[in-house]
Amino acid sequence: MAQDSQNQTEQNAAPIFSIEKLYVHDASIEVPNAPAIFTERATPQINVELGNSAQQIEEGIFNVSIKVTVTAKIEDKTAFLVEVTQSGIFAIRNVPQENMEPILAVACPNILFPYAREAISDMVTRAGFMPVLLNPINFEALYLQQQQQAAQAAGAPN
What we know:
Helices cover 37% and strands 38% of the residues. By secondary structure, the protein is α+β, with helices and mostly antiparallel strands. The mean pLDDT is 91.
């Protein structure tokens, strides 16, 4: 009986990571220069901006979001602007505190990004343009870069 109780306690302490829900939190597309922009023959210049955030909803439950903004311009005219916030609710329990930030800033965005990428491509196509296929993003490198910048800022004299 004591062995069963000990095994149950060890099982309860095992790290847990699960996806509870994936959803599009916000999505929009603008084609401010339509219909004239469709007569342009030049290839649009694409600019991509990315941001991510995480917040604890309740004990062991986190909402993580990535926001991707894609702007396409032909010369000085905006062809389209598409913005998608892809979110997910994740259960993360029994994980050491020092591992939480990398999970929220790297592992969760890696799961969310393909969904945001698909939503952007679909919206751009529906707006009448060739699909935009975003390159994969190395969230680990972005996280390490942010950590390095924060460390440098903390060490900088005021």
